[in-house]
Each structure stands twice: as structure tokens, then as C-alpha cells.
Specification:
Chain lengths: 412, 79
């Protein structure tokens, strides 16, 4: 029998706030963290809409600390410190502490900065920190070093599903007995003229320049693409036994994960949601849940025309008539799309929804797309059943056809 | 530029790169043992010195720069 895993710490730095409390408050208040990029480097960008973190990491970290880290690493470290402190800074044998921190694309900003230096000033001026700053495992390594993790430091990479996959990976480390405590989640800090141009070239981004705050509109009939965001969301997981023994506060039980792949297209979602359906069903089985137990689904819904409908169809297919009583939300309306940090931010929102028994509405959702036949939360937060055990699913998908679904249960 | 000027400039660089208080960067201090400047930070210190003082410090010389004094004297002799 594998070990029960619980959530004991949360940390986040997002376009909505510099920590979990302010981010959650902004989600419940339907505030938008999205705006126009004003830095001159974006002047020629085809899209200038993005969601930048509310608290600049350069103002939080020591200067010498910040200069050795890529932005994605800075954000991960800030969120990990919050999560660790929130968990009560558990004392444990470092060989029992694991880390699984993901990013979708790694240190792109550092890579581009150093490429500019190479071209302008030559190889002799390229920073010796370039490799540690650009490597995708860099954020995990930075977090692992900070807390002295020796059970293993890992970086699952699956584009925009990475942050969720990292949580699933971390939970498996505990279930299998490799670790007692794992710091896990995702981060991204790659808003740069190149990444903007690249996503814009795919026609994936919203171009609502006349009203950027409402550009990200999951499930809305007028959605026109996603909004690039940055930020990090990190959770501390531990075995229930270990958490109870040290008297830790417990947010929720980690139920399980479902993994699948679309086998359809490098970037397009499979229109009937085949992989999504498989992943959701596998998560239910892994978590020992049925569709009747699910009162809430945090959808991946990025505000793209194709993806949102495919996901809604998949949810209806999996849930059947139980979809009528499963409150669906999507955090990207407020926060934009954190890419590698999106899955773990959605997980944190799901965990808090179970704890507080309330689901935030979808920010900027005005008119539900008629093709979306599920119970999306519109207009104001939705209360969940006040008593009894409740459970939630958190969906994350990534370019490449990755499908990751996490399941959480209220803790009692 | 005097020895004091170079020491002050180097101390500012070490502070920027490694976060060591500038007043700790004294002539007799070892970069590795006293100031905790690792090999990657040392490369950054060397690059910054080359830019700031207009010297060239080849890799073959860097390994001889054990103390702050070694570096200050090298810069003084070669600028």
C-alpha cells in the first residue's frame, strides 16, 4: 500500500500578488494581472500584452543572489521559500527531502542576454553563470541547494503541463518511499521579445491591445488566444505520517495523478479531448475517486479558441451528468498563462478551493461560449458543500500533447 | 591609479559579484578561503577587473591570484 501524501505548504509569486494570500484574494475578487508591456524592447513586438509578476524578484532577493540566477530561478526560489516557511520549515534528514521543480522553457532570458553579449563583446565576456542560468533544471537545482535536498532533485518538462507534472512526480517520490517531504511545482520567467514573437507566430496569443486587462477570457465566446505570464507556484508535500508526527497544518490530501498523451499534433489539441479524457479517468482511478466525488475542476483553459472547447467536451465526456454539479474555473483569466508555472498555480487554487470551500469565478468571462456545456463559474465565487469530504481535479496540458491531471481531496 | 584606488575598485567588484561587504576585502584575504569566492565568481571578478582597470588577466595568471593583494599588485603592474 503506497503512502498517503498531504499538502502542508504553499508558495507563489504571480501577476496577481507576491505571495499565495494576495494571489488567492485577487482570484476571488476577479482582478486581472494583465497589462501592456511598456519596456522599449517590446516596441516592435506583434503582441505587447502580458502578465508580469506583481513583485519584481530583483527587489526581493539580495543583489549578488539575483545576479547568479535566471528570472525563472529567482521566482522559483521566492515561491519555494514561502512554501517552506508556510510548512513550518520542517526539520528532517536531508536524504529524505526531495525537489521536483519544473519550467516549460528554462532560462531563455539569460540565454538571449548572453547571446547579445557574445555578438556585441565577444566570447571572453560571456558570463560563467550562463550554463547554470539557462539549464531547465536550474530552478530545481537552486531550490535543492537552498534547502539541502539529497533525496533527488528533478525537473519534469512537458511545456505548459510541467508544473503539474512536477507535483505528480514529487508525490510519487513520497508514495514510493524515496522521500518524506518534497518541494515541488513550476516556474516561468521568459517574457522576452523572442518568446512573444514565437508564440505570436503560432497565432496563439490574444491581440486585444485596446483592452489588455480582459485579453485572457477562458471559455468566453470572444476569446482570441492566451496571454503570456510569468511567475512561480510551489507546494510542499509530505507523507501524512510525517506531517502528523510533527504536528503540521494540512491543507488537503494529494489524491493522485493521471497522465496521458494526445498522439495527435505537436501544438494543436486533439479536438475530442482523447488524451484529456484518458488523463482525467486515470487521475480518478489513482485517487480512488468517482465522478460523484468531484465538486470542482480547475480547467487548463488558456483562452484559445480550439483548446477551451476541446477541454470542455472532455470534461463533459468524463463526468457525464456529474458535470452538472462540478464547478469549473480557470485561473488564466486573471493571471494569464504561466506556462511551466501554470499547472502548479492551478493546483494551489484547487487546494485552496477545497480548504475554503469556495471556487473563484473565471475572470473576464462575460458570455459563455455556447459550445461549452459544463458548469463554469461566472460572475461571482461559488460556494462548495460546507461539510463532508470533497474532491477536485486540476487539469494541465502542454504543447507536444501532454495531459496531466491532478486530484486533491479535502483533509479531515 | 594608486594601490588604494585599485583595492577600493576591486572591493566594489567583489561586493557586486559575491555579496561580500567591501570592507572585508583586504589585501591579505584569500578569495577562496576567506571571501568564499568560488571559481565561477572568480571568472566574473576577473572579467570585471579587465573592464574596470583596462588590464588583461590571462587564465594562466588567474591561478596565481590567491589573495586580494595578489590581484591588486598584478593590476598595478600591468595596467
Amino acid at each position: 500500500m503506497s503512502r498517503t501524501v498531504v499538502v502542508t505548504g504553499l508558495g507563489a509569486t504571480t501577476p496577481l500578488g507576491g505571495n499565495v494570500a494576495t494571489t488567492w484574494e485577487a482570484l476571488l475578487a476577479a482582478k486581472s494581472g494583465i497589462g501592456l508591456l511598456t519596456d522599449p524592447q517590446f516596441e516592435q513586438s506583434p503582441v505587447r500584452i502580458a502578465a508580469v509578476v506583481k513583485e519584481d524578484p530583483e527587489n526581493i532577493l539580495e543583489k549578488h543572489e539575483a545576479r547568479r540566477m535566471d528570472r525563472s530561478q529567482q521566482l522559483a526560489l521566492i515561491a519555494a521559500r514561502e512554501a517552506w516557511a508556510d510548512a513550518g520549515s520542517p526539520e528532517l534528514d536531508p536524504t529524505r527531502l526531495g525537489v521536483a521543480v519544473a519550467t516549460g522553457v528554462g532560462g531563455v532570458i539569460s540565454l538571449m542576454e548572453q547571446y547579445d553579449i557574445l555578438r556585441e563583446r565577444g566570447a571572453a565576456r560571456v558570463s560563467p553563470m550562463t550554463v547554470p542560468m539557462l539549464m531547465p533544471n536550474g530552478p530545481a537545482a537552486v531550490v535543492g541547494l537552498e534547502f539541502g535536498s539529497q533525496a533527488g532533485v528533478h525537473t519534469p518538462v512537458s511545456a505548459c503541463a510541467s508544473g503539474a507534472e512536477a507535483i505528480g512526480y514529487g508525490a510519487e517520490m513520497i508514495r514510493s518511499g524515496r522521500a518524506d517531504v518534497v518541494i515541488c511545482g513550476g516556474t516561468e520567467g521568459c517574457i522576452h521579445p523572442l518568446t512573444i514573437a514565437a508564440f505570436a507566430a503560432m497565432r496563439a496569443l490574444s491581440t486585444r491591445h485596446d483592452d489588455p486587462a480582459t485579453a485572457s477570457r477562458p471559455f468566453d465566446k470572444d476569446r482570441d488566444g492566451f496571454v503570456m505570464a510569468e511567475g512561480a507556484a510551489i507546494v510542499v508535500l509530505e507523507s501524512e505520517e510525517f506531517a502528523k508526527a510533527r504536528g503540521a497544518k494540512i491543507y488537503a490530501t494529494y489524491g493522485g495523478q493521471g497522465l496521458a498523451a494526445d498522439a495527435h499534433h505537436i501544438a494543436q489539441p486533439e479536438p475530442e479531448g482523447r488524451g484529456v479524457i484518458a488523463a482525467m479517468n486515470r487521475a480518478l482511478i489513482d485517487a480512488d475517486l468517482t465522478t460523484k466525488d468531484i465538486v470542482h475542476i480547475n480547467a487548463h483553459s488558456t483562452s484559445t479558441p480550439a483548446g477551451d472547447v476541446a477541454e470542455a467536451k472532455a470534461i463533459r465526456k468524463v463526468m457525464g451528468s456529474d458535470a452538472d454539479h462540478a464547478a469549473v474555473t480557470a485561473v488564466k483569466g486573471a493571471a494569464g498563462h504561466l506556462l511551466g508555472g501554470a499547472g502548479s498555480l492551478a493546483a494551489i487554487a484547487s487546494i485552496l478551493a477545497l480548504r475554503d470551500r469556495v471556487v473563484p469565478q473565471v475572470t473576464n468571462l462575460v458570455t459563455l461560449d455556447p459550445a461549452v456545456d459544463i458548469d463554469v463559474v461566472i460572475g461571482k465565487p461559488r460556494q462548495l458543500p460546507a461539510t463532508g469530504q470533497i474532491a477536485a481535479l486540476s487539469n494541465s496540458f502542454g504543447f507536444g500533447g501532454h495531459d496531466v491531471v491532478l486530484a486533491f481531496k479535502s483533509y479531515s | 591609479m594608486s594601490q588604494e584606488d585599485i583595492l577600493a575598485g576591486l572591493a566594489a567588484i567583489v561586493n557586486e559579484v559575491a555579496g561580500i561587504p567591501a570592507e572585508s576585502v583586504a589585501m591579505d584575504k584569500s578569495f577562496v578561503d576567506d571571501l568564499d569566492v568560488d571559481s565561477l565568481s572568480m571568472v566574473e571578478v576577473v572579467m570585471a577587473c579587465e573592464d574596470k582597470f583596462g588590464v588583461t588577466i590571462p587564465d594562466s595568471e588567474v591561478k596565481n591570484l590567491n589573495t586580494v593583494g595578489d590581484a591588486v599588485n598584478y593590476i598595478l603592474a600591468n595596467k
